[in-house]
Amino acid sequence: MAFVQTQPELGNQYTADRALRSYLARALPADVRAEIEPALDAMGELAGGELYRFQLADRENEPVLTQWDAWGSRIDRIELTPLWHRAERIAAEQGLVATAYERKHGAYSRIHQFALAYLFTPSTDIYSCPLAMTDGAARALIAAGNHALIERAVPHLTSRVPREFWTSGQWMTEATGGSDVGLTETVARQAGEGWRLYGHKWFTSAITSQMALTLARPEGNPPGGRGLALFYVETRDAEGRPNRILVNRLKDKLGTRKVPTAELTLDGTPAQLVAGASDGVKSIAPMLNITRTWNAVSAVALTRRGLALARDYACKRIAFGAPLAEKPLHLDTLAGLEAEFMGALHLTFFVVELMGREESGKASAEQEQLLRLLTPIAKLLTARQAVQILSEAIESFGGAGYVEDTGLPMLLRDAQVLPIWEGTTNVLSLDALRALEAIGGLTVLKREIGFLLQGVRESGLVKISALAEKSIEQAEAWLKRAMAAGPVEIEAGARRFAMTLGRTVELALLAHHAQWSLEHEQDRRALAAARRFAAHGVTQLLDVDTADSRRLARDD
Ligand code: MFK
Predict the structure, then answer these.
(1) Which of 137, 148, 225, 267 has its CA 20 to 30 A from that of 43?
(2) What is the dihedral of CA 383, 386, 392, 394, to 10 degrees?
(3) Would you put residue 306 in left (φ > 0), alpha (ψ -120 to 50) or beta?
(4) How far apart are CA 438 and CA 435, in angstroms?
């Protein structure tokens, strides 16, 4: 009989996830944790069992666009995959958006919601995309205080009843600019009480949504981001036909193959202003900050899936006379990945905690500033960590990780979108600078790092605390030097600066959690993660000559 390799398996993805459970034990009061645990347990069971099998069986299905019916009518109908239909139902019933708005557990409701999303995401092929936009749209409408639109849309966006649940699109990107949204060419013309939109949207994700928030320039407005306005659009008319929206084609993408991403023409699409006839970028910012947090949660969720499979496989795969799980080099590799994952997990959920506090009116002014600064930083850092870790995770399977019907390559392809959409790494590094300017520098972050480290006593962690403190001092010194040198120096170093801030916070959170875990769980794994993470290095700041860098990059 020929050799057959046993495939990796997943158990209950909540009970098996010691990192998540340890975090929740620290972050949540015991009564809140006891109340939400049955739902997390059920989602973990579903995600590691039936839904995971469904996902593997659904692997080759993709959304299909039918533009014309048999008799020549333009219909632009998109059929989703069976997995996505299932995901939509589960998402509504389990309140993956609703939980945050019902706010049953006050400031902790965001932790509850995103822990559910974290478990759900890796088994549903980026269904987190429409959920992120739905959550972001609800938040943007509420932030704008537009009562008519809040009454019309928010009950649907936050419904737990599948037939009443709506998802929302976020149509920003045009061919002129994915990052430089101020170049948007779509025009808005007033028509009676409402508006009509004319233009082309070049990347619109999850296009089967019932509504969308989008940007357009009211006729006569000046160029740039301030001349744009934020509009609310319902995608279908009363008869269920596309609302003067043409779906020109679906994108043929590297990953996120289940997400129907379309190029659209808006041909007089009826629309309503969300928050005045200008400053659209500012009005959509609350949505972006929510979707960027979903991005970070998706990054750690996909990473965790890759590592869960790699760990199980390591116990099964025998090479050179022993399971991989007994090979020092294989274990060392997995340990390095696990440490990076744990840093990413703690940073992401720290942002989630701050978001929950802000929304329930429990955040101090400093916590609000911290949230503004750490949202882009968490997004950009965890996305890059996910790509790097998942590349290594699939390598840990050898050739099997490169073969499609294992379901493994999809993890890496899907992760590769995370540093791109919702703002690339560089654009978000600049956003972090924008945030820093708005909050008046690094004082608040420094204070938070000091607070996180103040209880750290274990001898193995003291050096780590010193490293985190040194790193934030170095970052502050770099900022001072760069500001004195001028805008070119600041912009050139912005990415390394943002990464350094992010890694410093990850390290401080790991040290903080490790101390807690030693005291409350007698568990040394967080300590091991903190030490390992520190050994990977924290600062990415370099003393480089920007003129030299320019020469190097351009090959002058
Ligand atoms: C898996 C989970 C996630 C899945 C969801 C993905 C599906 C969706 C796919 C997409 O839609 S991808 C497209 C996403 N596109 C982007 O994220 C755009 C990236 N570009 C930027 O973020 C640029 O920085 C930006 C467009 C904001 C620059 O535009 P401007 O017009 O040059 O902005 P400007 O003048 O700096 O800022 C305008 C105002 O907004 C300022 O306020 P003030 O008027 O009071 O000065 C800014 O402070 C404010 N602002 C900008 N970004 C903000 C913000 N405020 C708060 N938070 C922010 N993030």
Answers:
(1) 137
(2) -120
(3) alpha
(4) 5
Please choose, from the candidates 49, 111, 53, 48, the residue with its C-alpha nearest in 3D space to the C-alpha of residue 83. Answer: 53
Condensed to tens digits (0 to 9), the pLDDT of residues 517-546 reads: 999 999 999 999 999 999 999 999 988 788
Q: Are the CB atoms for 449 and 508 separated by under 8 Å?
A: yes
Using CA positions, which residue lies closest to atom 35 of ligand 1?
Answer: 225
Ligand 1 lined by 179 (C-beta under 6 Å): yes
Predicted local confidence at residue 254, as pLDDT:
97
Number of Cα atoms under 13 Å in the Cβ half of residue 130? 28
Query: Between 431 and 178, whose confidence is greater?
Result: 431
Q: How many other C-beta atoms are found inside a 10 Å radius of the C-beta of residue 329?
A: 8
Report d(CA 298, CA 149) in Å as an integer. Answer: 29
Amino acid at 54: F
Q: Is the CB of 526 under 6 A from ligand 1?
A: no
| 344 or 241, greater pLDDT | 344
One-letter amino acid identity for 454? Q
120, 202, 263, 288: which to mutate for ligand 1, most atoms within 8 A of CB? Answer: 288
The pLDDT score that the predictor gives to residue 545 is: 80
Over range 429-457, report the average pLDDT.
Answer: 97
pLDDT reading at 440 higher than 80: yes
Nearest CA-CA partner of 133 in 172, 89, 160:
172
Pairing of strands 262-273, 245-250: antiparallel
Q: Quick check: CB of 288 below 6 Å from ligand 1?
A: yes
Measured in Å, residue 288 CA sits from the centre of ligand 1 at 6
Q: Which of 133, 290, 434, 495 to mutate to test the pocket of ligand 1 (most atoms within 8 A of CB)?
A: 434
* DSSP string of 446-466, one letter each residue: HHHHHHHHTT---HHHHHHHH
285 lines ligand 1 (CB under 6 A): yes
Task: Report, as an integer, the average pLDDT of 24-45.
Answer: 98
* Ligand 1 proximity of 172 Cβ (cutoff 6 Å): yes
One DSSP character per residue, 262-331 reads EEEEEEEEEEEESS-SS-HHHHHHHHHHHHHHHHHHHHHHHHHHHHHHHHHHHHH-EETTEEGGG-HHHH
Closest Cα partner for 342 from 307, 377, 312? Answer: 307
Tell me, in angstroms, the distance from the centre of ligand 1 to residue 291's CA. Answer: 11
Residue-level pLDDT at 2: 82
Residues written for the chain: 556
**Would you say the CB of residue 124 lies under 6 angstroms from ligand 1?**
no
Q: In sequence order, what are the residues at sequence separation of 6 or more whose Cβ sits closer than 8 angstroms to the Cβ of residue 331?
A: 314, 325
Please, which pLDDT band fits residue 1 given cuts at 50, 70 and 90?
low
Q: Report which ligand 1 atom has the smallest distance to the Cα of 126.
A: 1
Portion of the chain with pLDDT greater than 70, in percent: 100
- The answer, as to whether pTM is greater than 0.90, is yes
